[in-house]
Amino acid sequence: MAALVSGVSQEKLRQWKQKAGDYIDEAKDKLYALSKDIWSCPELAYEEKQSHDRLVHFFTDEQGWTVDSHYKLETAFRATWGPVGGKEGDVVVNVGLLCEYDALPGIGHACGHNLIAEVGAAAALGLKGVLESISECPVRVKVTVLGTPAEENYGGKIDLILAGAFEGMDMVFMAHPSQEDAPYLPDVAEHDVTVRYHGKASHAAAYPWEGVNALDAAVLAYNNLSVLRQQLRPDWRLHGIIKHGGVKPNIIPAYTELEFYLRTPKRHDLPAIRSKAEMCFRSAAMATGCQVDLEYAKHEYHNILRNNTLDRLYKTNGEALGIDFTTDQEVLTTSSGSTDFGNVSYVVPGIHPYFYIGSQALNHTEEYTAAAGAEKAQFYTLRTAKVLVMTALDVLFCPGVLQRVRAEFSEALLKDERERKRRAGGDSSEPKHCGGAAALH
Predict the structure, then answer these.
(1) Distance separating alpha carbons of residues 173 and 159, to the nearest angstrom
(2) Number of other residues whose CB lies within 10 A of the CB of residue 429
(3) How far apart are CA 327 and CA 384, in angstroms?
(4) Do 242 and 260 form a contact (C-beta atoms < 8 A)?
(5) Torsion over CA of 329, 332, 336 and 340, rounded to 10 degrees?
(6) pLDDT tens-digit profile of 121-169?
Protein backbone atom coordinates (compact mmCIF):
# COMPACT_ATOMS: atom_id res chain seq x y z
CA MET A 1 0.00 0.00 0.00
CA ALA A 2 1.17 3.52 -0.69
CA ALA A 3 2.13 5.68 2.28
CA LEU A 4 -0.42 8.42 1.68
CA VAL A 5 -4.09 8.42 0.78
CA SER A 6 -5.54 11.89 0.18
CA GLY A 7 -3.24 13.11 2.94
CA VAL A 8 -3.88 10.08 5.20
CA SER A 9 -0.66 8.48 6.39
CA GLN A 10 -0.35 4.84 7.34
CA GLU A 11 0.26 5.94 10.93
CA LYS A 12 -2.96 7.93 10.90
CA LEU A 13 -4.79 4.93 9.48
CA ARG A 14 -3.34 2.73 12.21
CA GLN A 15 -4.61 5.21 14.82
CA TRP A 16 -8.07 5.17 13.26
CA LYS A 17 -8.14 1.38 13.41
CA GLN A 18 -7.20 1.50 17.08
CA LYS A 19 -9.88 4.10 17.74
CA ALA A 20 -12.52 1.95 16.01
CA GLY A 21 -11.59 -0.91 18.31
CA ASP A 22 -11.89 1.38 21.31
CA TYR A 23 -15.43 2.32 20.31
CA ILE A 24 -16.34 -1.34 20.10
CA ASP A 25 -14.81 -2.03 23.52
CA GLU A 26 -16.76 0.85 25.03
CA ALA A 27 -19.99 -0.77 23.83
CA LYS A 28 -19.11 -4.33 24.87
CA ASP A 29 -21.71 -4.61 27.65
CA LYS A 30 -24.66 -3.56 25.52
CA LEU A 31 -23.39 -5.68 22.62
CA TYR A 32 -23.25 -8.75 24.84
CA ALA A 33 -26.74 -7.96 26.13
CA LEU A 34 -27.97 -7.76 22.53
CA SER A 35 -26.38 -11.11 21.66
CA LYS A 36 -27.65 -12.79 24.81
CA ASP A 37 -31.21 -11.57 24.25
CA ILE A 38 -31.22 -13.01 20.72
CA TRP A 39 -29.66 -16.25 21.96
CA SER A 40 -32.29 -16.52 24.70
CA CYS A 41 -35.26 -16.40 22.30
CA PRO A 42 -34.35 -18.67 19.37
CA GLU A 43 -36.75 -18.20 16.47
CA LEU A 44 -37.00 -20.02 13.16
CA ALA A 45 -36.72 -18.56 9.66
CA TYR A 46 -39.16 -15.70 9.02
CA GLU A 47 -40.46 -16.02 12.57
CA GLU A 48 -37.69 -13.90 14.16
CA LYS A 49 -40.01 -11.26 15.56
CA GLN A 50 -38.38 -10.78 18.98
CA SER A 51 -34.83 -10.89 17.63
CA HIS A 52 -35.77 -8.49 14.84
CA ASP A 53 -37.41 -6.07 17.28
CA ARG A 54 -34.41 -6.23 19.63
CA LEU A 55 -32.04 -5.25 16.83
CA VAL A 56 -34.37 -2.51 15.60
CA HIS A 57 -34.52 -1.04 19.11
CA PHE A 58 -30.74 -1.32 19.43
CA PHE A 59 -30.13 0.88 16.39
CA THR A 60 -33.06 3.18 17.13
CA ASP A 61 -31.53 3.89 20.55
CA GLU A 62 -28.12 4.63 19.00
CA GLN A 63 -27.77 8.26 17.98
CA GLY A 64 -27.53 9.07 14.28
CA TRP A 65 -29.01 5.96 12.70
CA THR A 66 -32.00 6.04 10.39
CA VAL A 67 -33.91 2.79 10.87
CA ASP A 68 -36.39 1.12 8.50
CA SER A 69 -38.05 -1.35 10.85
CA HIS A 70 -39.55 -3.74 8.31
CA TYR A 71 -37.34 -3.30 5.28
CA LYS A 72 -38.56 -5.26 2.23
CA LEU A 73 -39.47 -8.25 4.46
CA GLU A 74 -41.44 -8.46 7.71
CA THR A 75 -38.48 -9.59 9.83
CA ALA A 76 -35.76 -7.70 7.97
CA PHE A 77 -34.54 -4.20 8.83
CA ARG A 78 -32.16 -1.56 7.56
CA ALA A 79 -30.18 0.96 9.63
CA THR A 80 -28.24 3.65 7.77
CA TRP A 81 -25.82 6.36 8.82
CA GLY A 82 -24.30 9.07 6.63
CA PRO A 83 -23.15 9.90 4.12
CA VAL A 84 -20.42 11.95 5.78
CA GLY A 85 -17.00 13.23 4.76
CA GLY A 86 -15.54 14.14 1.42
CA LYS A 87 -16.83 17.06 -0.59
CA GLU A 88 -20.33 17.74 -1.82
CA GLY A 89 -20.73 15.94 -5.13
CA ASP A 90 -18.19 13.20 -4.31
CA VAL A 91 -19.23 9.62 -5.04
CA VAL A 92 -20.53 7.94 -1.88
CA VAL A 93 -18.93 4.64 -0.85
CA ASN A 94 -21.63 2.52 0.80
CA VAL A 95 -20.28 -0.07 3.26
CA GLY A 96 -22.74 -2.87 4.06
CA LEU A 97 -22.77 -4.93 7.27
CA LEU A 98 -25.08 -7.93 7.64
CA CYS A 99 -26.79 -9.38 10.71
CA GLU A 100 -28.29 -12.87 10.85
CA TYR A 101 -30.51 -13.97 13.73
CA ASP A 102 -32.58 -17.05 12.87
CA ALA A 103 -32.13 -20.28 14.83
CA LEU A 104 -32.44 -24.01 14.28
CA PRO A 105 -35.42 -26.17 15.27
CA GLY A 106 -34.97 -27.94 18.57
CA ILE A 107 -31.42 -26.78 19.35
CA GLY A 108 -31.69 -22.99 19.16
CA HIS A 109 -28.67 -20.93 18.17
CA ALA A 110 -26.48 -23.93 17.40
CA CYS A 111 -24.99 -22.07 14.44
CA GLY A 112 -24.27 -18.92 16.45
CA HIS A 113 -26.39 -16.47 14.49
CA ASN A 114 -26.77 -14.39 17.63
CA LEU A 115 -23.01 -13.77 17.34
CA ILE A 116 -23.33 -12.89 13.65
CA ALA A 117 -25.87 -10.23 14.63
CA GLU A 118 -23.53 -8.98 17.34
CA VAL A 119 -20.56 -8.80 14.97
CA GLY A 120 -22.59 -6.75 12.51
CA ALA A 121 -23.84 -4.39 15.21
CA ALA A 122 -20.40 -4.02 16.78
CA ALA A 123 -18.71 -3.33 13.45
CA ALA A 124 -21.38 -0.74 12.67
CA LEU A 125 -20.74 1.12 15.94
CA GLY A 126 -16.98 0.96 15.48
CA LEU A 127 -17.03 2.18 11.89
CA LYS A 128 -19.51 4.97 12.59
CA GLY A 129 -17.57 6.05 15.68
CA VAL A 130 -14.23 6.38 13.94
CA LEU A 131 -15.67 8.12 10.87
CA GLU A 132 -17.41 10.64 13.14
CA SER A 133 -14.10 11.33 14.88
CA ILE A 134 -12.29 12.26 11.65
CA SER A 135 -12.55 16.03 11.37
CA GLU A 136 -11.98 16.11 7.61
CA CYS A 137 -12.74 12.64 6.27
CA PRO A 138 -11.32 12.54 2.71
CA VAL A 139 -13.90 9.99 1.49
CA ARG A 140 -17.67 10.36 1.43
CA VAL A 141 -18.96 7.29 3.28
CA LYS A 142 -22.31 5.72 4.11
CA VAL A 143 -22.79 2.76 6.47
CA THR A 144 -25.72 0.38 5.92
CA VAL A 145 -26.67 -2.41 8.30
CA LEU A 146 -29.06 -5.02 6.91
CA GLY A 147 -30.91 -7.43 9.14
CA THR A 148 -31.19 -10.56 7.01
CA PRO A 149 -33.64 -13.23 8.24
CA ALA A 150 -34.10 -16.86 7.24
CA GLU A 151 -30.59 -18.07 6.40
CA GLU A 152 -31.21 -21.56 7.77
CA ASN A 153 -34.24 -21.95 5.55
CA TYR A 154 -35.84 -20.11 2.60
CA GLY A 155 -32.85 -17.83 1.81
CA GLY A 156 -33.79 -14.44 3.22
CA LYS A 157 -30.82 -12.71 1.60
CA ILE A 158 -31.98 -13.96 -1.80
CA ASP A 159 -35.43 -12.47 -1.22
CA LEU A 160 -33.71 -9.22 -0.23
CA ILE A 161 -31.58 -9.31 -3.39
CA LEU A 162 -34.70 -9.72 -5.52
CA ALA A 163 -36.34 -6.83 -3.63
CA GLY A 164 -33.39 -4.54 -4.42
CA ALA A 165 -32.03 -4.29 -0.87
CA PHE A 166 -28.38 -4.56 -1.96
CA GLU A 167 -28.54 -1.97 -4.72
CA GLY A 168 -26.06 0.85 -4.20
CA MET A 169 -23.77 -1.08 -1.87
CA ASP A 170 -20.08 -1.12 -2.72
CA MET A 171 -18.96 -3.92 -0.38
CA VAL A 172 -20.59 -6.20 2.17
CA PHE A 173 -19.15 -7.70 5.36
CA MET A 174 -20.28 -10.39 7.77
CA ALA A 175 -18.57 -13.13 9.79
CA HIS A 176 -19.68 -16.60 10.88
CA PRO A 177 -18.80 -18.54 14.06
CA SER A 178 -16.83 -21.74 13.62
CA GLN A 179 -14.17 -23.91 15.31
CA GLU A 180 -11.28 -21.93 13.83
CA ASP A 181 -10.38 -18.58 12.30
CA ALA A 182 -10.22 -18.39 8.51
CA PRO A 183 -10.58 -15.41 6.16
CA TYR A 184 -12.28 -17.70 3.65
CA LEU A 185 -13.73 -21.20 3.55
CA PRO A 186 -15.38 -22.36 0.32
CA ASP A 187 -19.08 -22.75 1.08
CA VAL A 188 -20.87 -24.75 -1.58
CA ALA A 189 -23.96 -24.39 -3.76
CA GLU A 190 -27.10 -26.11 -2.49
CA HIS A 191 -30.73 -26.79 -3.42
CA ASP A 192 -33.47 -28.39 -1.30
CA VAL A 193 -36.04 -30.80 -2.67
CA THR A 194 -39.14 -32.28 -1.03
CA VAL A 195 -40.37 -35.58 -2.49
CA ARG A 196 -43.91 -36.83 -1.88
CA TYR A 197 -45.13 -40.32 -2.78
CA HIS A 198 -48.85 -41.05 -3.09
CA GLY A 199 -50.00 -44.66 -2.90
CA LYS A 200 -53.14 -46.42 -1.66
CA ALA A 201 -53.98 -47.49 1.89
CA SER A 202 -55.03 -51.03 2.71
CA HIS A 203 -54.96 -53.47 5.65
CA ALA A 204 -51.38 -54.66 5.84
CA ALA A 205 -52.32 -58.17 7.10
CA ALA A 206 -55.77 -58.91 5.67
CA TYR A 207 -55.41 -57.71 2.06
CA PRO A 208 -52.06 -56.01 1.44
CA TRP A 209 -52.40 -56.71 -2.31
CA GLU A 210 -55.05 -54.01 -2.46
CA GLY A 211 -52.58 -51.37 -1.34
CA VAL A 212 -49.91 -49.31 -3.09
CA ASN A 213 -47.09 -48.84 -0.60
CA ALA A 214 -45.74 -45.28 -0.49
CA LEU A 215 -43.26 -46.26 2.23
CA ASP A 216 -41.71 -48.81 -0.11
CA ALA A 217 -41.23 -46.00 -2.62
CA ALA A 218 -39.59 -43.79 0.01
CA VAL A 219 -37.26 -46.57 1.14
CA LEU A 220 -36.34 -47.44 -2.44
CA ALA A 221 -35.61 -43.79 -3.20
CA TYR A 222 -33.44 -43.49 -0.10
CA ASN A 223 -31.51 -46.62 -1.08
CA ASN A 224 -31.25 -45.50 -4.71
CA LEU A 225 -29.55 -42.32 -3.55
CA SER A 226 -27.25 -44.25 -1.23
CA VAL A 227 -26.12 -46.38 -4.18
CA LEU A 228 -25.78 -43.29 -6.39
CA ARG A 229 -23.19 -41.80 -4.03
CA GLN A 230 -20.56 -44.20 -5.40
CA GLN A 231 -20.92 -42.51 -8.78
CA LEU A 232 -20.82 -38.94 -7.47
CA ARG A 233 -17.75 -36.76 -7.30
CA PRO A 234 -16.12 -36.80 -3.85
CA ASP A 235 -17.03 -33.16 -3.26
CA TRP A 236 -20.72 -33.53 -4.22
CA ARG A 237 -23.18 -34.20 -1.43
CA LEU A 238 -26.76 -35.40 -1.13
CA HIS A 239 -28.36 -36.16 2.20
CA GLY A 240 -31.87 -36.26 3.56
CA ILE A 241 -34.53 -37.66 5.83
CA ILE A 242 -37.90 -39.41 5.63
CA LYS A 243 -40.19 -36.80 7.17
CA HIS A 244 -43.36 -38.90 6.99
CA GLY A 245 -43.38 -42.68 6.74
CA GLY A 246 -46.95 -43.73 7.47
CA VAL A 247 -49.41 -43.69 10.35
CA LYS A 248 -49.71 -47.28 11.70
CA PRO A 249 -47.96 -50.60 11.05
CA ASN A 250 -51.17 -52.39 10.01
CA ILE A 251 -52.02 -49.80 7.35
CA ILE A 252 -50.21 -49.80 4.00
CA PRO A 253 -48.83 -46.22 3.90
CA ALA A 254 -50.68 -44.13 1.32
CA TYR A 255 -48.40 -41.14 1.72
CA THR A 256 -44.72 -40.59 2.46
CA GLU A 257 -42.48 -37.54 2.30
CA LEU A 258 -38.72 -37.07 2.07
CA GLU A 259 -36.54 -33.97 2.19
CA PHE A 260 -33.09 -33.92 0.63
CA TYR A 261 -30.33 -31.34 0.25
CA LEU A 262 -28.26 -31.46 -2.94
CA ARG A 263 -24.84 -29.76 -2.87
CA THR A 264 -22.02 -29.10 -5.33
CA PRO A 265 -18.92 -26.89 -5.00
CA LYS A 266 -20.06 -24.64 -7.85
CA ARG A 267 -23.57 -23.51 -8.66
CA HIS A 268 -23.24 -24.65 -12.29
CA ASP A 269 -23.18 -28.30 -11.20
CA LEU A 270 -26.52 -28.21 -9.39
CA PRO A 271 -28.49 -29.17 -12.55
CA ALA A 272 -26.34 -32.31 -12.91
CA ILE A 273 -26.89 -33.56 -9.37
CA ARG A 274 -30.60 -32.67 -9.59
CA SER A 275 -30.95 -34.77 -12.72
CA LYS A 276 -29.26 -37.78 -11.10
CA ALA A 277 -31.35 -37.50 -7.93
CA GLU A 278 -34.59 -37.15 -9.87
CA MET A 279 -33.97 -40.45 -11.65
CA CYS A 280 -33.66 -42.09 -8.24
CA PHE A 281 -36.89 -40.54 -6.99
CA ARG A 282 -38.92 -41.30 -10.12
CA SER A 283 -37.67 -44.85 -10.56
CA ALA A 284 -38.83 -45.66 -7.01
CA ALA A 285 -42.29 -44.45 -7.96
CA MET A 286 -42.31 -46.59 -11.09
CA ALA A 287 -41.18 -49.69 -9.19
CA THR A 288 -43.96 -49.39 -6.58
CA GLY A 289 -46.79 -47.96 -8.69
CA CYS A 290 -46.91 -44.74 -6.66
CA GLN A 291 -47.37 -41.24 -7.91
CA VAL A 292 -44.52 -38.84 -7.08
CA ASP A 293 -44.36 -35.06 -6.71
CA LEU A 294 -41.07 -33.18 -6.52
CA GLU A 295 -41.03 -29.70 -5.04
CA TYR A 296 -37.76 -27.77 -5.16
CA ALA A 297 -37.10 -24.91 -2.79
CA LYS A 298 -37.86 -21.45 -4.09
CA HIS A 299 -34.15 -20.52 -4.14
CA GLU A 300 -30.81 -22.15 -4.79
CA TYR A 301 -27.95 -21.20 -2.47
CA HIS A 302 -24.87 -20.29 -4.50
CA ASN A 303 -21.25 -20.90 -3.64
CA ILE A 304 -19.33 -17.87 -2.38
CA LEU A 305 -17.59 -15.86 -5.10
CA ARG A 306 -14.26 -15.21 -3.45
CA ASN A 307 -12.64 -11.78 -3.32
CA ASN A 308 -8.96 -12.35 -2.63
CA THR A 309 -8.21 -8.68 -2.05
CA LEU A 310 -10.68 -8.49 0.83
CA ASP A 311 -9.51 -11.87 2.18
CA ARG A 312 -5.86 -10.74 2.27
CA LEU A 313 -6.74 -7.49 4.02
CA TYR A 314 -8.83 -9.36 6.60
CA LYS A 315 -5.99 -11.81 7.27
CA THR A 316 -3.40 -9.04 7.66
CA ASN A 317 -5.60 -7.08 10.04
CA GLY A 318 -6.54 -10.20 11.98
CA GLU A 319 -2.92 -11.16 12.48
CA ALA A 320 -2.26 -7.65 13.77
CA LEU A 321 -4.84 -8.35 16.50
CA GLY A 322 -3.32 -11.73 17.34
CA ILE A 323 -5.56 -14.08 15.36
CA ASP A 324 -3.90 -17.40 14.58
CA PHE A 325 -5.55 -18.37 11.31
CA THR A 326 -5.88 -22.08 10.60
CA THR A 327 -3.45 -23.76 8.22
CA ASP A 328 -5.14 -27.16 8.52
CA GLN A 329 -5.51 -28.35 4.94
CA GLU A 330 -8.33 -30.72 5.84
CA VAL A 331 -10.33 -27.76 7.14
CA LEU A 332 -9.39 -25.59 4.18
CA THR A 333 -10.15 -28.20 1.51
CA THR A 334 -13.16 -30.15 2.82
CA SER A 335 -16.41 -28.36 2.13
CA SER A 336 -19.62 -28.97 4.01
CA GLY A 337 -21.67 -25.78 4.42
CA SER A 338 -23.92 -23.55 2.35
CA THR A 339 -25.14 -20.01 2.90
CA ASP A 340 -27.31 -17.47 1.12
CA PHE A 341 -24.39 -15.07 1.46
CA GLY A 342 -23.11 -16.93 -1.59
CA ASN A 343 -25.89 -15.31 -3.62
CA VAL A 344 -24.95 -11.91 -2.19
CA SER A 345 -21.35 -12.42 -3.29
CA TYR A 346 -22.55 -12.54 -6.91
CA VAL A 347 -24.22 -9.13 -6.50
CA VAL A 348 -21.79 -7.14 -4.32
CA PRO A 349 -18.11 -7.76 -3.53
CA GLY A 350 -17.98 -9.16 -0.03
CA ILE A 351 -16.25 -11.17 2.65
CA HIS A 352 -17.60 -13.98 4.85
CA PRO A 353 -14.78 -15.04 7.22
CA TYR A 354 -15.11 -17.60 9.99
CA PHE A 355 -14.12 -17.02 13.61
CA TYR A 356 -13.29 -19.17 16.61
CA ILE A 357 -15.50 -18.58 19.68
CA GLY A 358 -13.47 -20.38 22.36
CA SER A 359 -14.93 -23.85 21.83
CA GLN A 360 -14.17 -26.89 19.70
CA ALA A 361 -17.85 -27.91 19.69
CA LEU A 362 -19.27 -28.50 16.21
CA ASN A 363 -21.92 -26.26 14.65
CA HIS A 364 -25.49 -27.57 14.72
CA THR A 365 -25.01 -29.34 18.07
CA GLU A 366 -26.34 -28.59 21.55
CA GLU A 367 -22.76 -28.00 22.67
CA TYR A 368 -22.37 -25.24 20.13
CA THR A 369 -25.61 -23.66 21.28
CA ALA A 370 -24.13 -23.36 24.76
CA ALA A 371 -20.84 -22.00 23.40
CA ALA A 372 -22.61 -19.35 21.32
CA GLY A 373 -24.31 -17.99 24.43
CA ALA A 374 -21.29 -18.14 26.70
CA GLU A 375 -19.44 -15.03 27.87
CA LYS A 376 -16.20 -16.68 26.72
CA ALA A 377 -17.27 -16.12 23.10
CA GLN A 378 -17.35 -12.34 23.56
CA PHE A 379 -13.62 -11.67 23.24
CA TYR A 380 -13.46 -13.51 19.92
CA THR A 381 -16.69 -12.02 18.61
CA LEU A 382 -15.67 -8.41 19.30
CA ARG A 383 -12.17 -9.03 17.95
CA THR A 384 -13.73 -10.23 14.71
CA ALA A 385 -15.88 -7.09 14.50
CA LYS A 386 -12.73 -4.99 14.92
CA VAL A 387 -11.02 -6.83 12.06
CA LEU A 388 -14.01 -6.22 9.77
CA VAL A 389 -13.85 -2.48 10.52
CA MET A 390 -10.09 -2.40 10.00
CA THR A 391 -10.58 -4.08 6.63
CA ALA A 392 -13.28 -1.58 5.66
CA LEU A 393 -10.95 1.31 6.60
CA ASP A 394 -8.22 -0.13 4.37
CA VAL A 395 -10.64 -0.26 1.44
CA LEU A 396 -11.80 3.29 2.11
CA PHE A 397 -8.45 4.97 2.69
CA CYS A 398 -5.71 2.96 0.95
CA PRO A 399 -5.08 4.05 -2.66
CA GLY A 400 -6.49 1.82 -5.36
CA VAL A 401 -7.84 -0.86 -3.00
CA LEU A 402 -11.52 -0.24 -3.73
CA GLN A 403 -10.72 -0.29 -7.45
CA ARG A 404 -8.92 -3.63 -7.03
CA VAL A 405 -11.86 -5.07 -5.11
CA ARG A 406 -14.24 -3.99 -7.87
CA ALA A 407 -11.96 -5.21 -10.67
CA GLU A 408 -11.52 -8.62 -9.06
CA PHE A 409 -15.27 -8.89 -8.56
CA SER A 410 -15.92 -8.09 -12.24
CA GLU A 411 -13.30 -10.58 -13.39
CA ALA A 412 -14.77 -13.31 -11.19
CA LEU A 413 -18.24 -12.67 -12.63
CA LEU A 414 -16.89 -12.90 -16.18
CA LYS A 415 -15.12 -16.16 -15.37
CA ASP A 416 -18.29 -17.52 -13.82
CA GLU A 417 -20.33 -16.55 -16.89
CA ARG A 418 -17.83 -18.27 -19.18
CA GLU A 419 -18.15 -21.40 -17.06
CA ARG A 420 -21.94 -21.21 -17.23
CA LYS A 421 -21.87 -20.98 -21.01
CA ARG A 422 -19.38 -23.84 -21.24
CA ARG A 423 -21.67 -26.09 -19.19
CA ALA A 424 -24.72 -24.99 -21.18
CA GLY A 425 -22.84 -25.88 -24.35
CA GLY A 426 -22.53 -29.48 -23.26
CA ASP A 427 -18.90 -29.62 -22.11
CA SER A 428 -18.93 -32.56 -19.70
CA SER A 429 -15.50 -32.01 -18.17
CA GLU A 430 -15.65 -32.16 -14.40
CA PRO A 431 -15.16 -29.17 -12.11
CA LYS A 432 -12.05 -28.76 -10.01
CA HIS A 433 -12.12 -29.85 -6.39
CA CYS A 434 -13.29 -27.18 -3.97
CA GLY A 435 -12.90 -27.31 -0.20
CA GLY A 436 -14.21 -26.79 3.38
CA ALA A 437 -16.45 -24.85 5.70
CA ALA A 438 -18.18 -25.13 9.02
CA ALA A 439 -21.69 -26.53 8.78
CA LEU A 440 -24.24 -23.85 8.00
CA HIS A 441 -27.50 -24.58 6.19
Answers:
(1) 18
(2) 7
(3) 18
(4) no
(5) 180
(6) 999 999 999 999 998 899 999 999 999 999 999 999 999 999 999 999 9
